[in-house]
Amino acid sequence: MFLFSQALGAQTTDTDTLKQGTTVFVFSIDEQIAPAMWRHTQQSFERAKEKEADMVLIKLNTYGGMVNMADSIRSKILESPLPVYVFIENNAASAGALISIAADSVFMRPGSRIGSASVVNQQGEVMPEKYQSYMRSTMRSTAEAHGKDTLITGSDTLLRWHRDPLIAEGMVDPSIVVPGIVDSTKIVAFTAQEALQHGYCEAIVNSVPEIMQWLEVDKYEIAEYKPSGLEKIIRFLVNPALQGILIMIIVGGIYFELQQPGIGFALAAAVIAALLYFAPLYLEGLAANWELGIFIIGLLLIAIEIFVIPGFGIAGVSGILLAIAGLVLAMVDNVVFEFEFHALEAVKILLSSLVLVTLSSLVALIGSIYLSKKILTSQQFSALVLGDTQQKDEGYIGIDTVVKTLKGRIGIAETVLRPSGKVRIDEDIFDARSETGFVEKGEKVKVVRDGTYQIYVLKVKEEHKHE
Predict the structure, then answer these.
(1) Domains contained in the chain, number
(2) 431 and 447 Cβ atoms separated by less than 8 Å
(3) CB half-sphere exposure, 339, CA atoms < 13 A
(4) Whether this model's pTM surpasses 0.90
């Protein structure tokens, strides 16, 4: 008969103190391990502290995800002053395996699995050795954090790892030989029964009450984490498909607004879409103030290029690049890249974000150009278009008729034209726009044509170029 007792370095739970009035805080990790799940974990531990819980139980079912986020969750579990248990309901693969072995005890439902923690790229291809090496050391150190057990067999007393670090490494690297488990061609992945046999599971159970029974906790209450309405909305809004739609509305709204005078519905739609895009990313801890600032500066530069500086040059190009950069960087977690391994994770997200923003922007631009030509001529929108014409001979005048008589007249720039400004002709002042860009105050200009409520002018010395 064997008798086990935990010894070096492992956290222990005095079940005698948990038998009366125990509060068990329960939350689930049942999605891809990503920034949203890291935020969810942080909030759950904060709620557990607020409720003065005696222990934390994580219901886990995930195929993995971002290893840097899983590493953050792992650290949160290891540093927790409360005992933390994991209940694997189906899968604890890849990053999920790392989270599981960080817990004080692991419980598995019949038919569940744990393991297969190699580092792969987005195509499922195994990454080079330097990434596997870092993951191996992370898995090994996590297993070692739970110390050793005292094994008493008759008159012999032995020490052995509570969770064998070699097995943890074998979950990452197929070249690791784990005697009696795998040879050098396979990655370790356990069924519930195998995990129990090799010390990576404390018990096979079907429910939380069975876990409490195994822990010998007689009386307890469950305090379960339930996302608020706001958190559910945030999770919905950070869906990549919806983010792509919001980007299209932002770009399309700005395009349509530039095609019409004044401020209208298109700009309002773009502003609302921008708020719905940035707000949840900001609350998730992904978007920072400086990233939002980059986006706003980009929009301002685009506006300056269109309305102030003639042509399309440095300001316009810079504005487009900054606006795209703001949209892309807002999706990327602002982490300190202490390891190249973590930097790789960020680069993968950065490239994915760049592709999403670029494709969404192109679709929005192409769609906006097409719609701007078709929408007002379609039968569905014909009721919104004024069909009657208002003729001059019927007394209708849409603009100040004075500007129609000014072509060929010479005037003086009353203000700087950038390219818009004021021009004085005789004693009258008119809104004017330079056809060739910047005109200094006091320079002579000539009216070359008229427009809606304004005239178009050229500097007198440049008139021959225009003609």
Answers:
(1) 3
(2) no
(3) 14
(4) no
Share of the chain above pLDDT 90, in %: 27
Q: Same domain, yes or no, for 40 and 183? A: yes
Centroid of chain to Cα 421: 43
Q: Are residues 210 and 63 in the same domain?
A: yes
Query: 246: number of CA atoms within 13 Å, CB side?
Result: 21
Q: Tens digits of per-residue pLDDT, 171-219?
A: 998 888 888 888 777 889 999 999 999 999 999 999 999 999 999 998 8
- If asked whether residues 241 and 349 sit together in one domain, one would say yes
In a domain, 24, yes or no: yes
Cα angle: 232, vertex 234, 237; to 5 degrees: 110
User: End-to-end CA distance of the chain, in Å?
Assistant: 106
Do 359 and 419 have their domain in common?
Answer: no
Residue 46, pLDDT above cutoff 70? yes
What's the Cα-to-Cα distance from 279 to each of 235, 271, 285, 356, rounded to whole Å? Answer: 12, 12, 10, 18
Residue 266 belongs to domain spanning: 229-377
For the chain, state the CA radius of gyration. 33
* Residue type, position 92, single letter: A
Q: If you average pLDDT over every residue of the chain, what do you get?
A: 79
Do both 245 and 220 map to the same domain?
no
Q: Residue 176 burial (CB < 10 Å; 0-12/13-18/19+)?
A: buried
Q: Is residue 388 domain-resident?
A: no
pLDDT band at 41 (very low <50, low <70, confident <90, very high): very high
Please indicate, yes or no, whether residues 272 and 205 belong to a single structural domain of this protein.
no
pLDDT tens-place string over residues 251-302: 888 777 666 555 567 778 888 888 888 888 877 766 778 888 888 898 888 7
For 129-166, b/e burial (b = at least 16 CB within 10 A) is eebbebbbebbbebbbbbbbbeeeeeeeeeeebbbbbe
Q: For the segment 11-25, what is each residue's pLDDT rounded down to a tens digit? A: 444 444 444 568 999
Give the domain CATH number at 87: 3.90.226.10
Strands (E), 267-419: 410-413
pLDDT at 100 exceeding the cut of 70: yes
